[in-house]
Structures are given as C-alpha cells and as structure tokens.
UniProtKB/TrEMBL annotation:
The keyword ATP-binding applies. SUPFAM superfamilies: NagB/RpiA/CoA transferase-like. This is 5-formyltetrahydrofolate cyclo-ligase. Its cofactor is Mg(2+). Its EC number is 6.3.3.2. It comes from Antiquaquibacter oligotrophicus. Pfam families: 5-FTHF_cyc-lig.
C-alpha cells in the first residue's frame, strides 16, 4: 500500500528534475524571444478578461518571464498582488508597484510593501501562477511545496487561474494526487490555451 501512495510523488520528483534541467539549458536568445511573446499573451489575457486586479508572481531567471507583464500591469493602473511564502505553508500577499523587492523565506522575490493576509487574493480578477508542467485537462504540476494548491483549494469564488509555462511543458498528462489543483488555462510563448 505504501508504494502505491509514493508512486505519484516519485514520478513528480523525476519530472520536476527533468523540467528544471530543460529550463536551465535554454539559451538567452530563446528566453528573450519567448519572454516577449509570453508578455504579449499575458497582456492579451488580462485585457480580454477586463481584469483590474491580479495576483501574479515575479519570475526567477530560469522561469518563463512574468516581470515585463507585471511591470505593464503596474504602469496601466492594474492592482498587482505578489505572493509571500509563510512558514505555515500559506501565502500572504503584498501589493506591488514595480519598485523595491526583497526575498521571502524560500528565497522568492517579493515586494517590500505591507503584507496582506492570505484572504487578500479573494478580491482579484485573475490569478497567474507558476508551474513546472500542465496537462491538457488543466492539471498543474507545481514545484512541490503546495503553496498554490492550498491557496486555490481554499478559495470559494476563485477567478480564472492561468499557469505560465514554456510550450514543451504543456503535456498529455502529469502525475497528480488528491490535493493537486487544476488551472483554467495556460499562457505559453505560442499563445493562450483555456481548458
């Protein structure tokens, strides 16, 4: 019985390691080209939804880039909330205006503005989340800490949730467990896919 419950977790670990390596070896020119396309698709999605308030994240160098999109949102009067990891596995949210950054307890970039509690995300029109991979049913494979699964799973009236991934990270299926949360779509360098 124990081996059965461990199967998805070990499959996830192996897949995450492979995806991390693929991201690591992307060239600077690939990243730049893909980043420009991603930014435009994220702007299109936000505009199409008429979102005036979003929850997003500040991408790390090897991740599909969200920073130009977040900057665009700030410049266009869209309220942006950025996650801040807590020791209890929940996410606080902080308003972001494109200025000062710090790091949270996991080393993720976060704003230095006032911390809002976990329920602050309930007021947004669109949630943009990181992912390692997403399958064609919308099942999201995160990076293994469960922060976004807990957040999305606890929301009563969840707005559209889109994961930002590279094209080759949209796959036929990903290993999943009961606590894993689906997303409504993905944004990739090639476009927007809604499930």
């Amino acid at each position: 019985m124990e081996g059965m419950t461990d199967a998805p977790e070990s499959q996830k670990r192996a897949l995450r390691a492979e995806l991390r390596e693929r991201r690591r070896i992307r060239t600077a020119s690939e990243r730049e080209r893909e980043g420009t396309a991603l930014t435009q698709h994220l702007i299109d999605l936000t505009s199409d939804l008429g979102a005036r308030s979003i929850a997003a994240y500040l991408s790390l160098p090897e991740e599909p880039g969200t920073r130009d999109f977040v900057e665009w949102a700030c410049e266009n009067g869209i309220r942006v909330l950025i996650p801040v990891s807590r020791a209890d596995g929940l996410l606080d949210w902080a308003p972001y205006d494109g200025s000062d950054e710090d790091e949270d307890l996991l080393g993720m970039p976060t704003p230095t503005s006032e911390l809002l509690g976990p329920i602050a995300i309930n007021s947004v029109d669109l949630i943009v989340v990181p992912a390692a991979s997403v399958d064609r049913t919308g099942m999201r494979l995160g990076w293994g800490r469960g922060y976004f699964d807990k957040t999305l799973g606890s929301m009563e009236n969840c707005p559209p949730v889109y994961a930002v991934i590279f094209d080759d990270e949209l796959v036929d299926s990903v290993p999943s467990e009961r606590h894993d949360q689906r997303v409504d779509g993905v944004v990739t360098p090639s476009g927007i896919v809604a499930f």
